[in-house]
Inverse folding.
C-alpha cells in the first residue's frame, strides 16, 4: 500500500510543468505530501521522488534540510514557539515551560495523548513587536501569556473532530488507544547528552545534536 | 488583521507607511482611491522608458533594505535588458533575521505596494516574470499577497498587457520551508530551484546567472515597496530625506525590552536614542538600557553609551556595527550578555547550511564553549577559545556572511562586555541581578510575572 493517495500523486505529477525547471516542484510536492500524511516518512519521500522522476536520496536531502518538513508525526495542533532573542527577552522560555506542562509532553519530540498536541521551539518568526509569539494552526498568536496558552488548548480540546480533512495524528493513528501518550517514532538518532551543558538546560533541537540538516551527507 | 504596532498615518517622514492603518488598504480599490496606488506603475509603463526608471532609482540613492545596503539603481543596471531569453525578478520575502519584522509589516498592511514595486522593477530590467520567495511561516502575508496579485490581475495591471502596454508581466509566489540561510540571495536561488539552500560561489553573480541559470534581479520587500514613491515623486525628492550616502527612510523593527515595540519608519540619520527612547517609549519601567543590536542579531552590538549613534549606514560602520536588516533588539540591565550571546550562537550554529567549514565547525565550537562557561566550567582558556573561534568565523572566509555574523556576536559582546564574560569564565559568577537562571535572565520582569509564575 502506498503512503500517499493516488489522486495526490497525480497532483504532484502535474507540478513540474509549472516551473521553469521541473526540480522546483520538489518543495511544493513535499508540502502536499506532508499536508496529507501529517509528516514525511521514507515511503512518502520515495513516492514523491518517483512522481517527480528524482532520486529518492535527493528528495530526502531536501526534506531534511528545511525545518518546516516534519520527519516524525506531530500532534494535530503543532505549536511553533519562537525562542529567539526578542521573544526570550520577553519570557518565551516561561511560555515553553508552561506549554509543556499544559499539553503534558516531555519534550519537542513527543505528541500528547490522542495525538492532539506537540510543540517545537523555533527561530525568529518575524513578528518581534508582538513577542513572545508563536505559530499555531497556520496562524500567528501574539503577546503570549500562560492564560492565552491555556485558552488556545482548551479551545482545541473542545473541537476534537478533525480541523482539516485528511490529516492523521500518527501513522495508523485512527486505531490508537487515546489514553496512551504517543511518543513519536524516532527516525533520528537519540539526542547526544553533553557533559558540557548546565544541569537542567534543555538540550534537544539545538545545534547539530539533531541531524536535521545532514552536514556533509 | 492584527493591531498596528509601529508607524502609520500622516507624518513628514512616512514615505512607506503614510497610508498604513487605512481600513482595507490591502484591497486594490482602497489602495487606488485612498493611497493613489498604481499611479507609479501607470507612469512607469506608459510614460517612462525602462532606462529612465532605473536612472530615477539611481538618483534616489536608495540602498537595499535586506541587509547589505547595496545601491538599488546600480543593481538594476547590472541586468542586460537586451539579452535574449527570459530574465527574472526574485523578491526576497524570506524575512528571518532575528529581531526583524518589517517585511511582514508591509505585506500585511499594504501588499499592493509591493506588487506595484515589483511590476515597475520587472519592467525596468526587462523581466516578464517575477517570483516572490516568501517564508513558509508567513501564512497571512502569503494569503494577502496572493489575493493582491489576483486583484491586480483581474484589473489588468499584470498579465499579457498590463495597463494596455504590450509588455507581459506576471508575479508568482514560492514558499520557503524554514531556513534562515534562504535570506542569502544565492541560497534563496538554490532553494527556488528545488535544492538544499546552500550559497553559491560568485562570480557568476545573479545578474548574469541567477534563477534557473538566467539573469536575475534580487531585491528585498522593503526595497521594492519604496520604488512606487520614488517614481511618483522623483529620485531627487527621495534623496532629500536621510543622509548623503544613506538617503531616504527605512523601517526599523524595534523589539525586546522596550515599552512600545513596533515597526517604525525612520529617516536615516536619526539617532538610536530617538528610535529607542522616543518612538519605542524607552526601556521597561524601572530598568535601564544595557545594550542594543542596531540591525538584526547579525549586527555587532552597541552598548548603552553609544545610544547617540545615528541610524545611517556610515555612522553605524564608524561604530563598528552595521545597519543590516533594521531589526533593533533592545536588552535591559536585567539580562546577562553571555547568555544572550549563547542564545544567538545556538541560532547561528543551527542555521549554518554546512557548506563552508569555518561556519559549520565554528558555530558548534562556540556553542560548546559557551556551554562550558555557563556551566561554571570556564577559565581563561574558554575566553581565548571564544576569541579564536570568533576570528575564524569572520573576515569573509565563507561563501556567505552567516559565519561572519556569528563571529560578530562573539566579538562585539566580548569587546563591550569583557568584564561580564570574565565574571562567568574566571570567577564563575554572574553579577547581573541575582543568581543565573536557566532562562537567560536574572531578575523578575515587570510584565506577565503572575502569568508565568
Amino acid at each position: 500500500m502506498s503512503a500517499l493517495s493516488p489522486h495526490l500523486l497525480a497532483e504532484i505529477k502535474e507540478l513540474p510543468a509549472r516551473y521553469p525547471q521541473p526540480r522546483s516542484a520538489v518543495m511544493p510536492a513535499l508540502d502536499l505530501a506532508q499536508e496529507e500524511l501529517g509528516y514525511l516518512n521514507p515511503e512518502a519521500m520515495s513516492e514523491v521522488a518517483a512522481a517527480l522522476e528524482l532520486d529518492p536520496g535527493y528528495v530526502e536531502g531536501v526534506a531534511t534540510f528545511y525545518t518546516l518538513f516534519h520527519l516524525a508525526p506531530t500532534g494535530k495542533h503543532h505549536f511553533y514557539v519562537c525562542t529567539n532573542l526578542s521573544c526570550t527577552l520577553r519570557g518565551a522560555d516561561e511560555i515553553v515551560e508552561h506549554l509543556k506542562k499544559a499539553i503534558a509532553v516531555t519534550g519537542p519530540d513527543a505528541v500528547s495523548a490522542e495525538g492532539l498536541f506537540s510543540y517545537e521551539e523555533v527561530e525568529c518568526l518575524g513578528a518581534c513587536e508582538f513577542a513572545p509569539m508563536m505559530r499555531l494552526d497556520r496562524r500567528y498568536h501574539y503577546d503570549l501569556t500562560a492564560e492565552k496558552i491555556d485558552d488556545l488548548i482548551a479551545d482545541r480540546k473542545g473541537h476534537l473532530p478533525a480541523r482539516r480533512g485528511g490529516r492523521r495524528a500518527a501513522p495508523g493513528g485512527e486505531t490508537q488507544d487515546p489514553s496512551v501518550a504517543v511518543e513519536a517514532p524516532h527516525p533520528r538518532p537519540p539526542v547526544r547528552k553533553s557533559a558540557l551543558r548546565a544541569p537542567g538546560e534543555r538540550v534537544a533541537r539545538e545545534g547539530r545534536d539533531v541531524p536535521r540538516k545532514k552536514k556533509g551527507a | 488583521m492584527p493591531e498596528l504596532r509601529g508607524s502609520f498615518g500622516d507624518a513628514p517622514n512616512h514615505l512607506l507607511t503614510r497610508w498604513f492603518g487605512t481600513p482595507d488598504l490591502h484591497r486594490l480599490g482602497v489602495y487606488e482611491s485612498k493611497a493613489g496606488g498604481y499611479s507609479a506603475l501607470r507612469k512607469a509603463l506608459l510614460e517612462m522608458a525602462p532606462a529612465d526608471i532605473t536612472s530615477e532609482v539611481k538618483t534616489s540613492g536608495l540602498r537595499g533594505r535586506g541587509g547589505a545596503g547595496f545601491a538599488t539603481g546600480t543593481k538594476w543596471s547590472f541586468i542586460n535588458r537586451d539579452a535574449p531569453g527570459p530574465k527574472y525578478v526574485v523578491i526576497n520575502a524570506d524575512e528571518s533575521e532575528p529581531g526583524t519584522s518589517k517585511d511582514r509589516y508591509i505585506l500585511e498592511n499594504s501588499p499592493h505596494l509591493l506588487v506595484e514595486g515589483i511590476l515597475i522593477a520587472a519592467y525596468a530590467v526587462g523581466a516578464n516574470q517575477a517570483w516572490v520567495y516568501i517564508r513558509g511561516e508567513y501564512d497571512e502575508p502569503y494569503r494577502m499577497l496572493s489575493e493582491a496579485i489576483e486583484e491586480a490581475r483581474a484589473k489588468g495591471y499584470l498579465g499579457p498587457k498590463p495597463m494596455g502596454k504590450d509588455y507581459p508581466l506576471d508575479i508568482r509566489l514560492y514558499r520557503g520551508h524554514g531556513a534562515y540561510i534562504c535570506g542569502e540571495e544565492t541560497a534563496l536561488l538554490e532553494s527556488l530551484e528545488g535544492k538544499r539552500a546552500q550559497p553559491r560561489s560568485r562570480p557568476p553573480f545573479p545578474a548574469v546567472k541567477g534563477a534557473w541559470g538566467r539573469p536575475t534581479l534580487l531585491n528585498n520587500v522593503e526595497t521594492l515597496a519604496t520604488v512606487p514613491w520614488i517614481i511618483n515623486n522623483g529620485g531627487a525628492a527621495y534623496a532629500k530625506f536621510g543622509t548623503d550616502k544613506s538617503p531616504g527612510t527605512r523601517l526599523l523593527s524595534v523589539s525586546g525590552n522596550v515599552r512600545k515595540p513596533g515597526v517604525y519608519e525612520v529617516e536615516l540619520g536619526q539617532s538610536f536614542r530617538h528610535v529607542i527612547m522616543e518612538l519605542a517609549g524607552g526601556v521597561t519601567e524601572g530598568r535601564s538600557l544595557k545594550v542594543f543590536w542596531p540591525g538584526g542579531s547579525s549586527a555587532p552590538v552597541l552598548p548603552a553609551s553609544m545610544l547617540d549613534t545615528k541610524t545611517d549606514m556610515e555612522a553605524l560602520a564608524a561604530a563598528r556595527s552595521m545597519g543590516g536588516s533594521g531589526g533593533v533588539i533592545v536588552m535591559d540591565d536585567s539580562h546577562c550578555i553571555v547568555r544572550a550571546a549563547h542564545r544567538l550562537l545556538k541560532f547561528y550554529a543551527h542555521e549554518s547550511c554546512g557548506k563552508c567549514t569555518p561556519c559549520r565547525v565554528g558555530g558548534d565550537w562556540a556553542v560548546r564553549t559557551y556551554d562550558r562557561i555557563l556551566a561554571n566550567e570556564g577559565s581563561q582558556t574558554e575566553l581565548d577559545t571564544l576569541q579564536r573561534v570568533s576570528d575564524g568565523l569572520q573576515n569573509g572566509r565563507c561563501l556567505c556572511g552567516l559565519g561572519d555574523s556569528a563571529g560578530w556576536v562573539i566579538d562585539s559582546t566580548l569587546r563591550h562586555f569583557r568584564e561580564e564574560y570574565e565574571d562567568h569564565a574566571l570567577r564563575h559568577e554572574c553579577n547581573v541581578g541575582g543568581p543565573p537562571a536557566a532562562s537567560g535572565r536574572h531578575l523578575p520582569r515587570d510584565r506577565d510575572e503572575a502569568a508565568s509564575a
User: Anything to note?
Assistant: Chain A has a mean pLDDT of 80. Chain A has seven helices and four strands.
